[in-house]
Amino acid sequence: MIYRESGQFITSYQADHRIFKLYQQRWAFYALLGFAFVIVPFIGNDYWFSAILIPFLVLSLAGLGLNLLTGYAGQISLGSAAFMAVGAFAAYNFQVRIEGSPLLVGFVFGGVAAAIVGVIFGLPSLRIKGFYLLVSTLAAQFFVTWVLTQFGWFSNYNASGVISAPSLLILGHDFSSPAGRYLLTLGVVTVLAFFARNIVRSELGRHWMAVRDMDTAAAVIGIPILKTKLLAFAISSFLLGIAGALWAFTYLGTVEPHGFDLSRSFQILFIIIIGGMGSILGNFLGAAFIVLLPILLSNLSANFLAGVVDPGQLENLQKIIFGALIIFFLIKEPNGLARLWQLFRERARIWPLRF
Amino acid sequence: MLSIIKKPSALIGALTLGLSLLSGTVQAANEQYFPLQSYRVGPYAAGGTGFFGGFIDYLQYVNLKEGGVNGVKFTWSECETEYVVEKGVECYERLKKGLNGAPAAATNPLSVGIAYATLDRSATDKLPLITINHGRTDSTDGSVFPYVFPLQLNPYSEVSAIINYIGDKSGGLDKLKGKKIVTLFHGSPYGKETNPILELLAKKYGFQVTLIEVPHPGNEQQSQWLNIRRIKPDWVILRGWGVMNPVALKTAQKTGFPADHIIGNIWSNSEEDAAPAGAAAKGFISITTHPSGTNFPVLQDIDKTVLKAGKGNLQDSKRFGTVYYNLGVVNGILNVEAVRVAQAKFGKRPLTGEEVRWGFENIKLDDARLKQLGAYGLVQPLKLSCSDHEGGGAVRFQQWDGKQWKVISDWVQADRKLLRPIIEESSHKYAKEKGITPRDCSKES
Hints:
heterodimer; A: mainly alpha; 14 helices; B: Rossmann fold; Rossmann fold; 2 domains; 14 strands
């Protein structure tokens, strides 16, 4: 009842092209954006910005990058963290080596560098599929980390190979405070999510889905496989590269190559599996699950069980609960949290009736 | 059943406490808080449980024995990091505000990665960041890094002291000429940090240095040691981490290199590094900033007041007096001393991080004070200042006799005069990159 489309007719092509076709959806979305951009900076505190919201947004963006590649174009990859590392180090070098270069251009440069590396490691996808492709993207994971540690040039000859982010100035405005870093991250993620949403609705997005569903059939109906697959790698790595730059610049403020190791790639893969493959919203839900739930569990146990249960055991208990929840969700809904949300919406449409 | 719940009565206590907190009856306590970013699970749990066990036991000891410092009791809470940077940052942000009104004194993450990630935050939040025996070398320059303290020993001093010791053994630093030294280092930022200094020292003293990398985690070192056998070095410096250390010792034995010419650095110096190698470790030398063992009055006293009373933090009481545990105690002594020094200036009350920082910069531990603390021989004489956040820069050498470490040298000093210009060059570069204006230390009181 509360969520009905009755009386809303699409009368123009422009209206048909909207992302959110129902006005309830539109207003809810605007309200959410308004809340995130205007209200949250006033009510949030350092802990919420630096420890929860920023990593949540950055990992959502990383999930989005991988989801384009895996969820939409059907190419499995375990090199996500490597592309993030390329983005972070490229953005850093751009900032350090070109005096007075604008920060956002640095981010874009990081994304482009990651896209180039992504295309190179995406080349094998033209010949191999599935698990075999997974293994070849795994090579990116090890190769990139090795290069970044081996050659001092990438970290500006810092003795320990760690980069530290320069000050976050955009048009003379300083974004270094926790709220500022949050707003910067939120802005970048919003723009890129909009960009990604529109790509998957475009011709390219439909090509991706055709290749995902059956690439032989896609080739037969005239879809250029080479271009489609490599563009998937490029655009996915572009988003991952910017996520990496954000991770280094707005979240940690410093990063070493081993910060982007294999476990980070797995984390991103879990985000899209739990959130939902082939969904934009799913990345945000998945990232929220992966980032927020452990923090929530840890906070709960620190507040109510500290001093009673041995701290080491407590940590293991949290892991057990977290793992059990993942299994529960995947059994309950193998298509991810995004699908649960969709089912909920369908139920809400006809509520209070059942059918 | 339910062996993880130590005390059922404590559970009820915690629940009532939680309820009373909810009902809002919080009173500002006369307490000083230590946020502990500890790690008790994961690959480095051995180090974490020992270090934080020692640290907590010392704080507990000061509380029980003297009722805190001048009546201000210590309080702490833990947040598990698993040595993972993001978790460490989350813990830092969660705990930095203090606990129930008790202000935070300093953070002690005992992790290079977490220290790097919270470096800028500590300056913004005015909360000292203690990286005892490790950390970023150039943070020794307190004029650029006012809130970071690589207490006792930074990585450069570590190498310099080892070379001085080798010189001593060869009969003078001038005898180093023509000697061959191999450094076997862990393939990580930590492992590489000292390579430029080794090359510099090699040039200065005329010895030959070969740097050989062991990729992480280092459980296969056959080719590296065959290479070493070919070079036939006089000494091997082992700059290892975790599993790499016992494997190095075992492989050295297989290739016939004598263990008593291998010198382990500060992360290759614990019981957990030598014991797994079994007989191959016998004779292995390593540096330490604090001897292991329980013969120091302060440790005896901790044993009596804390451990015997059943309030110790260690799960396995056999680890009392081991290298990591004693490092925790040393860290506790230094933190508490900083609070004490700061209280003498600012008054006998819980202090802010900024005030505790002043305390750290004015720590002065001479032999008399160390004897008073019962830590003579355990802690080196230490004098910090605005520009010098390291203080000591001395190590002792110890040798593994197959069962435990035996101290075999007095304090060996690093050549800090030689290192200082390099540290300053690096810190000034950092200041320029970050747009920091260094403090003028001549104006600090």
